[in-house]
Specification:
This protein has 80 residues and is mainly β. It is built from one helix and seven strands.
Length: 80
Amino acid sequence: MEAPAPLQSAADEQDGVTISRREYEDENVITVDFGRGVEAKLDVVGETAIVVAGDRQFEFEIPEEATEVTTNDGMLIIKE
């Protein structure tokens, strides 16, 4: 699973946003860190995720293969 395009664009354009991918035996996890001191808040409307991180907002379609989209310690977590 790839990171949703709006999040990948933010990571490409802004130094404070980082995306990490971890592969485990039973799941894959994408973690998006929006930078030091920035806490992400998540709202899901239908199949759309809306993430507010500091003064930025990101909207994206939840990937079909995603089993869970949450936040933890201010970071966005997408599990497959």
